[in-house]
Structures
1.
Amino acid sequence: MNTSPAGIIVAGVTVLDLIPTFLENDQASIPLIQNRAFLTPGQLVSCGPARVATGGAAPNTGLALYRLGFPVRLAGRVGDDLFGKIILDSLASRSPELARNMVVSPGETTSYAMVINPPGFDRAFLYCSGANDTFSARDVHFDRLADARLFHFGYLNVMPRMYQDQGKELQSLYRQARSAGLVTSLDIAFPDLNSQAFKEDWPAIFSRVLPEVDIFIPSFNESLVLLDRQTYDQLIEQAGQRKDSLGGILSGVDGGLLTLLGERLVSMGAAVVGLKLGDQGLYLRTTGQRDRLERIAGRLPVDPEQWANRELLTPCFKVKVAGTVGAGDCTIAGFLAGVSFGQAPEAAMTSAVAVGACSVEAADATSGIPGWDEVQARIGRGWARLPMGLALPGWEWDPAAQVWVGPHDASRQG
């Protein structure tokens, strides 16, 4: 295994998170939050002290990688206001290099989010997009980042300039990254179903962008709602949830649906597809095109033979959940770290859910994440897993690797 961490550029949505805390013994306030009664006119809901933290794809994934021991440069956009100063000061207090390539846009508003995250329930957001709306390919300066080997961009579908015109701007950004010799990675966010972004032609956008993407790691919900709204709505109806719900639809999901979605995204051009499944773990589907995998191996110490035609699912680890904000971003960080260190698919997936589990042990996204060696040591001590709640007909459990092996995995072919 390569012991020299790869330099990583993490770009995309940058937010200041304002996170009220809710005490587990406050039995009066928590139900009001869970039922969205706090939006009732005149309603007062008691809460505890607020956490103020950097958020969004760039700080969450970037700081998680930084805490794991990687040299990271962030590329995001903030305004010249108080919230922007808080973000930049927070990043610089960890390392001046983190904030060196951030763009400060005079007169623009820094993006912020009020994160409503009661114990035991998925989070909700009140979100101001601010300067993220004007982020463009010009805000990433690859010529200043020549030591990097991997480029990750997060939350494509909430950054208008990047998805408009069927993703032409993002395609340009990824072509620049590939020309610079970087391995490329992409994430999306759950869309506002009433927004203009949701009305875009997402199959066309993905078909344009994913051929430039080596690693694509959205959540199952996010990718399904953009590519197959009918199936998404059916799952929501079965689960008895609101149409804009972020979680809970997995009760109607089985291994066959994961396979269909994973294969569709690979066929659109991504070499490695990971679908985040909340507390059900991480699903992986990879291409059989060796040239795509060899391109990754040209910059990172991965074995194309180990990664070709894989279909795997790894469960999450058991933890006491303090907050879920940014857990998906940190899961991505764990996966990219595993790939960067040359781990096999099974181990990289395990690292991904381990870092995600560390993340939810703290109220904010990244403060619960220790160094890479400590994460690996915790895994090695026999960290208990959550039970699998998805139906997986035709799948096999590998007790040594602690993963479910899908019917289309290379190890089961021929």
Note: The mean pLDDT is 90.
2.
Amino acid sequence: MTLIEKLKNWAQLLKQDVLMLWFATKNPNTPWAPKAICIFIVAYALSPIDLIPDFIPILGFVDDLLLLPILIWVAIRLIPSFILQESRIQADQWLIQNQSKPKSQLGLLIVTIIWLLMIWLAYLLIKSQTS
């Protein structure tokens, strides 16, 4: 198996894990702390824009290659196994029926707010240095 094939398989597994967490957030038996973490992960992962755009060399893929897998790993450790099993089945069925991942408007909103805050802080920093 080539490196490209391994990366494609890993990306597919991440996609399934994000969907599994999405279904875990909808499960009423999921404890509130893991549910809150999952909501953040799912909102960010399914957002149509990234916090760090992919066109930025090296840094653009840090969130996809490091941040998301670590957060997914933490969330999976916090959710009871029976909820994970149910959610994984639902995610597999979703992928078979829809062939795509859902989009997150909440994620879009979160990333947009973070970007606007960073722009505002940069403006304040520049303004304070020119005064």
Note: The CA atoms of residues 62 and 117 lie 21 Å apart.
3.
Amino acid sequence: MTTPAPQERFTGLAEPYARYRPGFPPAAYDFIAEFAGLATGALVLDVGFGTGISAQPLAERGWQVIGIEPNDDMLRTARQTLPSKLGIRLIQAAAEQVPLPDASADAIVAAQAFHWFRPTAALAEFHRLLKPGGSLFLMWYERADGDPFNDAYTAAIHRHGEGAADLERQRRLAGTVLLQAPGWDAACRHEFTHEQRLDEEGVVGRARSISYGPKSEAGLAALAADLKAAFQHYHQGGTVAMKYITTLYAARRPER
């Protein structure tokens, strides 16, 4: 089987992605605001925008947001689901080649996305786009290990998915490049905990939003059966709590 290009991996998955993926914890956005010192009206680029899950809280804080996303399906769903009052502008482009002027952004956020980019080229492009002193944030949520339901969910994904364990390992390490990258100041890493309440439909839908899930109907059915069994074992009052750790890497473009 040919592995699809990163910009195509989510084709056909935008609807479950928008519906079932979690957001990020408010504490992460509080950190972004404090670290970057963003005033009302500051320009923030959300690169790897997806369906806008990470961007909506940025816009709700009074910042101008431009979403950068290469995938047609993701952009189409974002245009259909995002509130127009937020004023988010969308550009179809790759992270490594954004059609915006030098030093135009106050901050850049890449949420659940940087592991799909070519890291050296993307960091160079982000450096170009940021104003001197502008801030870069790379963040991911990962399922917390050691929780019984999370562990059962992960086992099902690894059993039926396509290269799931390897991709998850790659994703967990992707942000560390910023801690040693030349040309950035004040690089740091922070963690935040949060959870997502899901019913049985939500558990199956959450799994169907991932790019490395099974592609055949038989594979999807087998995954759904395992997930429903895990849900029935662990649910309380008709929902389970999927527990997450959001890891946020931050750095600044030097003033000079």
Note: The radius of gyration is 18 Å.
